[in-house]
Design goal:
The chain has 8 helices and 10 strands. With 305 residues, the protein is α/β, with parallel strands linked by helices. It has one domain: TIM Barrel. An 8-stranded parallel sheet has the order 3-4-5-6-7-8-9-10. The protein has a two-stranded antiparallel sheet with strand order 1-2.
Length: 305
């Protein structure tokens, strides 16, 4: 009988603690399994995506076995934000954001604004967003995007929550709007940063945080990010999968279906640490501390047996 990589973990599922056996090698190729020495925080996981519908419990267990102890589930519209809150209520170590993605900005109205404000008052919600500007595809017009974005900035001011921001091909306008609001909002992170040096420095000048994904692992599209990681102060840097999207291209084995998941966050940390010239442990510790300060949540440390 072949040997298995077995971890016994105490999980909080549906309101009770359960001792679970995680056969990590039954879910991910053995070459992809490693557990960093420090707990990690995935600040952007789209766990309400339909691709997780059949095995979400196993996905969360695999993440915990990989020492990804805390995951922030992204809410990109009302339905997904409500689903994210429901997941956070069911699972220790999961939190939610609540916002309207710029693609859906055309749906913004007073009823949606009230619904979002109610979600922001819930303890499971740790950030306003995903919100911002996306002038690449313009599923909503730039004017609709700006109106919805500024309305959500006002909600962030009202709630005191930090912001989880989306920006694509709209860096200049994003910086202009945020500059006008900067004295009133608290923390803000530009999630899945993929832009250039000038845009990065503009965001850092606004005292924003930067979220890095598996994009940096892509030698075709992300090579320009590699020299930039040393320019991001560790107290402003956070890490995320943005799963199920952006599967890292530095993985030593293929995954059937190519769905990304939080258990693979350590590979992103490894890539960033390599280009920054520090150890994975140092980077992991720093990004976890930054995430805790950003959203002020307790770190979920599971027990092993």
């Amino acid at each position: 009988m072949p040997a298995h990589n077995v971890t016994m973990v105490l999980l909080y599922i549906n309101g009770e603690y359960r001792l679970a056996t995680v056969y990590a090698d039954g879910f991910l190729p053995e070459a992809l399994q490693f557990r960093p020495s420090v707990p990690l925080v995935d600040i952007g996981a789209n766990l309400t995506h339909e691709s997780f519908g059949r095995d979400l419990e196993a996905v969360i267990q695999r993440a915990q076995a990989a020492n990804v102890t805390t995951m922030i589930v992204t809410g990109t519209d009302l339905a997904h934000a409500e689903q994210a809150v429901a997941l956070a209520k069911q699972h220790q170590g999961l939190y939610a954001t609540a916002g309207v993605h710029p693609h859906d900005a055309s749906h913004w109205d007073t009823n949606l604004e009230r619904a979002m404000a109610a979600l922001h008052a819930m303890p499971e919600v740790v950030a306003v967003g995903e919100c911002g500007l996306d002038f690449n595809r313009n599923f909503s017009t730039p004017r609709e995007q700006e109106l919805a974005f500024e309305a959500q900035l006002a909600l962030a001011v009202e709630s005191g929550l930090p912001l989880f921001l989306h920006e694509r091909d709209a860096g200049q306008r994003m910086k202009e709007i945020l500059h006008a609001w900067r004295d009133d909002i608290s923390h803000a992170v530009v999630h899945c940063f993929t832009a250039d040096r000038d845009t990065l420095f503009g965001y850092l000048d606004l005292d924003l945080h930067i979220g890095l994904t598996g994009w940096i692992c892509d030698e075709r599209r992300g090579h320009h990010l590699r020299p930039l990681v040393s320019d991001i102060p560790l107290e402003r840097m956070m890490v995320e999968t943005d799963c199920p999207y952006l599967l890292p291209r530095n993985l030593p084995a293929k995954i059937k279906g190519r769905r990304h998941e939080p258990a693979l966050l350590p590979w992103i940390v490894r890539e960033i640490a390599q280009w920054r010239g520090i150890s994975e442990t140092e980077l992991g510790n720093a990004t976890t501390r930054t995430a805790q300060r950003f959203s002020v949540f307790p770190l979920n440390l599971k027990k092993e047996y």
